[in-house]
Amino acid sequence: MSLKDRVERCLGDYATAFVECRGDLCVEVPVEDVLKVIASLKDELGFDFLSDLFGVDNSVLFEKKAKAAKKKKKAEDEALPGDDVPPPPRFEVNYLLLSLERNERLQVKIRVPEDKPEVDSVTGIWKAATWPEREVYDMYGIKFKGHPDLRRLLMWDEFPAYPLRKDYPLEGQGEERHLSYTTTES
Amino acid sequence: MAQQCPNIPEVGDFVTINIGPSHPAMHGTLRVIAQTDGETILKADPEIGYLHRGVEKLGENLTYHQFIPLTDRLNYCSAITNNVSYEMAVEKLMGLEVPEKAQLIRMIMMELTRISDHIVCIGILGVDLGAFTPYFYLFIQREEIYEIFEWFNGSRLTTTFGRIGGVEADLPEDFEQRWEELKPNLRKAIDETDRLFTHNRIWMDRTIGTTAISPEDALNWGFTGPCLRAAGVKRDLRKDEPYGMYDKVNFEVPTGKHGDVFDRYIVRMIEMEESIKIIDQAFQMYKEMAPDAPLRAKVPKIIKPPEGEVYHAIESPNGELGFFVKSDGSDKPYRIKIRPPCYMIYQAFPELVQGEMIADLIACLSSLNIIAGELDR
After folding, report:
1. Using the beta-carbon criterion (under 8 Å), do B347 and A128 form an inter-chain contact?
2. Is A62 touching B (CB cutoff 8 A)?
3. Rounded to an integer, what distance in angstroms lies between the CA atom of residue A151 and that of residue B347?
4. Is the model's pTM score more than 0.90?
5. What residues of chain A lie within 8 A of the CB of B327, using their CB?
6. Domain-embedded: residue A185
7. B46-73: per-residue pLDDT in tens?
8. Is A126–B220 a contact, with Cβ atoms under 8 angstroms apart?
9. Distance of CA B158 to CAs A81, B127, B230, B276, Å?
10. How many domains does chain A fold into?
11. Could you give the ipTM of this predicted complex?
12. Is there a domain that residue A83 lies in?
């Protein structure tokens, strides 16, 4: 039985889409069900190792696609104006799972909307998610509910923006870190 | 007085000490804030990000080939492995078939890097524990390896080795002679280090049982590479998910039992020996190739992979080094995510050093081989 069939049988309706690229299987699941999905993948299919966890900002990609679709539509026919499909949620969080026994890899993808950037934390299942989740919070501003210590990881705590979002300029916005030194009385 | 870490409340007579980010015993810009009772660590909180250069953000604004020099700056002790790992991810995305000769050259160079990376790790571990002599025995040979890199790549540390689809040049003619000269010296240096360290009473006292981790915990924390194998899990991507030509060579995967500093050291020592064996076999296969065999797949001048996303991981000296590349069909990657091995390992640090001595904190840090460049990216 191929990996896709097994994942399909295990997840049932939770799996909303399958994408295969060069042999890498990616399954999309709803953002609310991520904990259930990850737990059942771990217990039933033996995906017992979290290889990585990271976010992606898809805003530029969707804009590009919307533009291309508009152009195509215009070229094809002028009818059906104004029935633009709302773009899918802006962010995605990817979990790269690995089954040590079978040497199979699976990518689990959830899409996180910009106005409600909240995801359940998987640190209860894998401690390995501790820092990657902090990094996603640091870089994209996605909050992880139930994370034991959700602080910024690479940037300093007072940093005002989320640098890996596509609308953050490459050269930065002139943020400076001011360290305050306190002395203790002895 | 150090800035208070929000994680660590100040209680009673305990002293909070700050080590780093600039400290002679810390490797690179690492900082640990530790709460201590006497010399015992009650809690430690590592703070990272002092070497954060935004490599992933930069990658989104560079073309596929322009990103290769940036990968040198991740783990600067084993730059070639980083280069090849990234190139393999892009090749996978484009569906390129790399010629066998190029794969052999990559394999030889990657194993040389593995040796030099382990030399750095073991040498510095010795220095941190007060053993200075083996450091010199080993680093002389590392210098020789770097000579080979320099003479092949034109640079020693930041090699920018290989191109997408293959390698840029063939091994020079006198590689065999150089390797035959280096090999006995290397074996001798490893042997001398082994004799100075392995059964040394002080070394054993300092390393055996220090910061041990169980295999279950190691897997839960996302350990890979020598640190995972030291805990007793036999996992090596070269064997388990063979890439390149690794399925055609014979080598052993050493494992430890306790996951302590000593086991990490001994696993690395054996791996160096195995790497020498791999290079010998790879070079033998290389010699059987036709001299005019192709070195690079047919690659367009401007690389525009089709839309899609792939993850490809290889066994770097530190563990699983993976690159996730997402393409939107243009000449620049849409997103590059690097999975550095020591990033996952270092997050377990508070748990590892809890209840140990401060001096063991330094030993643990060296044995995990934390490289700030790939930790912070």
Report:
1. yes
2. no
3. 14
4. no
5. none
6. no
7. 888 888 888 888 888 888 888 988 888 8
8. yes
9. 55, 25, 29, 23
10. 1
11. 0.84
12. yes
